[in-house]
């Protein structure tokens, strides 16, 4: 599915905030650019009223998705945050929020992300899957897959990491975070739906959020990804290997 020029307006209730990551912030030496038309995956979960949440095309800087979170009001997953990062600067991040809770108090968030503190830099989402309640009416869990952007714009699999043991100082095994960040609520009951994945060589630049109709709070029912290819400036897209 492709969005025409009239539909490339981003639907975001709240944009907050441009943040930096302190010691982890870095402007990369090799500039990359998002190229080609956006492509939209199928939906993990179920279709509803759509909201496209992401960063609009920019000739100065390009952003892609590195994480998501969901909060609830009265058991309704009605507040979603899509976390984006500048593909050329790990210090520039934007949290884009969709609020259909009626601006009331919300629950603890479930969160999945490829943070710079736990993963390699330039890691972005390439796939997602949601967990539904038993009635298949509300999203109760989210998991993501991702890949790392190399300096030439190609996507590479995530590396396993080891960290020093605090007591011995030697490298410890099996200490790296999972390559599939996952978070869910108790009533997920392992009711995971099929993965939706960006086309080969592409990363997610926006999420298409599906919500139930009716009065607020309105529950999230499914998530699709909008994906684009990455390339070197002036050379077009990098062909997938």
Task: Describe this protein's structure.
With 241 residues, the protein is mainly β. Helix content is 0%, strand content 45%. The protein has no helices and 15 strands. It has strands at residues 14-19, 33-40, 44-45, 49-54, 63-73, 76-86, 89-99, 110-113, 123-132, 139-149, 155-156, 182-184, 196-197, 202-211, 220-231. Mean pLDDT is 85; it is low at 1-14 and 237-241.
> How many DSSP H or I helices?
0
Q: What is the tally of beta strands?
A: 15
Q: For the CA atoms, what is the radius of gyration? A: 18 Å
The strands making up the biggest β-sheet line up spatially as 1-7-6-5-8
Main attributes?
single chain; 241 residues; mainly beta; globular; disordered C terminus
Task: Give the gist of this structure.
By secondary structure, this protein is mainly β. It has strands at residues 14-19, 33-40, 44-45, 49-54, 63-73, 76-86, 89-99, 110-113, 123-132, 139-149, 155-156, 182-184, 196-197, 202-211, 220-231.
Question: Topology of this protein?
Answer:
Blueprint: E1 14-19, E2 33-40, E3 44-45, E4 49-54, E5 63-73, E6 76-86, E7 89-99, E8 110-113, E9 123-132, E10 139-149, E11 155-156, E12 182-184, E13 196-197, E14 202-211, E15 220-231
């Amino acid at each position: 599915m492709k969005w025409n020029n009239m539909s490339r307006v981003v639907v975001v209730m709240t944009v907050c905030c441009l943040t930096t990551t302190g010691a982890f912030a870095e402007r990369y030496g090799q500039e990359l650019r998002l190229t080609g038309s956006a492509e939209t995956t199928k939906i993990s979960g179920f279709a509803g009223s759509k909201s496209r949440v992401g960063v609009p095309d920019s000739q100065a800087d390009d952003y892609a998705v590195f994480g998501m979170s969901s909060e609830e009001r009265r058991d309704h997953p009605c507040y979603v945050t899509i976390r984006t990062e500048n593909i050329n600067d790990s210090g520039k991040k934007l949290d884009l929020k969709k609020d259909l809770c009626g601006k009331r108090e919300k629950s603890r968030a479930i969160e999945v992300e490829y943070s710079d503190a736990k993963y390699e830099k330039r890691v972005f989402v390439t796939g997602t899957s949601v967990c539904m309640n038993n009635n298949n009416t509300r999203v109760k869990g989210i998991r993501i897959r991702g890949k790392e952007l190399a300096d030439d714009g190609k996507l590479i699999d995530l590396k396993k990491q080891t960290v020093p043991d605090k007591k011995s100082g030697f490298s410890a095994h099996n200490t790296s975070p999972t390559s599939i960040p996952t978070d869910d609520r108790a009533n997920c009951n392992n009711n995971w739906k099929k993965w939706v994945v960006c086309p080969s060589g592409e990363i997610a630049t926006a999420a298409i959020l599906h919500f139930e109709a009716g009065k607020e709070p309105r529950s999230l029912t499914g998530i699709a990804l909008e994906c684009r290819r990455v390339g070197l400036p002036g050379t077009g897209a990098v062909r997938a290997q």
